[in-house]
Design brief:
Number of strands: 6
CATH architecture: 2-Layer Sandwich
CATH class: Alpha Beta
Structural class: alpha+beta
Bound molecules: uridine-5'-diphosphate, magnesium ion
Distance between the termini: 47 Å
Number of domains: 1
Largest sheet: 4 strands, antiparallel
Number of helices: 7
Helix content: 25-40%
Strand content: 15-25%
């Protein structure tokens, strides 16, 4: 058995359509463990880094706007890490194909996705594509202490005079 971790994002259309509960219920069929979760704002830098493999595509600017919530007036995503046996394979299977019109109708994207008139695939959820991408994405979206299991090697660093926000 191969344990895998995958980043899951509930994209702004998923949040706007109140699909969080539905999507988490569908994902719970996998019996995988949620080892990190948060609501996050998506800066331009984070969005561009997340989708850097698509930088040369004609739809790049559109998907940056999409993941940042500019198409739905929802400036946030829900980010989670699922962990367990064949996590990537299982979550991608449940998510369905990238193009929601081609996705199996019972999959998450087949059930809730759409293609906009400008051609963007609004497919409500992101799942990492393979183990290498999962590691890159999880490290991009989460700090080590936000993940409750030890997925990748860490190191101790002393940060001097780093300004952080504390409760007032
Ligand atoms: N996308 C799109 N048109 C395309 C391909 C991708 O709008 O022709 C969007 C879609 O929202 C997709 C995201 O860009 O989820 C990232 O594309 P990728 O090829 O990584 O697909 P995924 O891994 O999300 O299935
Ligand atoms: Mg992808």
């Amino acid at each position: 058995m191969t344990n895998q971790a995958t980043l899951i994002l509930i994209k702004p259309d998923g949040l706007k359509k109140s699909l969080t509960g539905n999507i988490l219920t569908r994902l719970s069929e996998t019996k995988l463990e949620i080892v990190a979760a948060k609501i996050a704002r998506v800066s331009k830098e984070l969005a561009e880094e997340h989708y850097r493999h698509l930088k040369d595509k004609p739809f790049f600017e559109d998907i940056i706007k999409y993941i940042r919530g500019e198409l739905h007036n929802r400036h946030k995503v829900m980010a989670l890490v699922y962990w367990g046996e064949e996590a990537i394979t299982k979550c991608r299977q449940l998510a369905g194909s990238t193009n929601p019109e081609e996705a199996e109708s019972t999959s998450i994207r087949g059930s809730y996705g759409r293609i906009t008139t400008s051609g963007v695939y609004e497919n409500v959820i992101h799942v990492s594509s393979d183990e290498k991408e999962a590691e890159r994405e999880i490290k991009l979206w989460f700090q080590p202490d936000e993940v409750i299991v030890s997925l990748y090697p860490t190191k101790d660093v002393v940060e001097k005079e780093k300004k952080i926000k504390a409760w007032g």
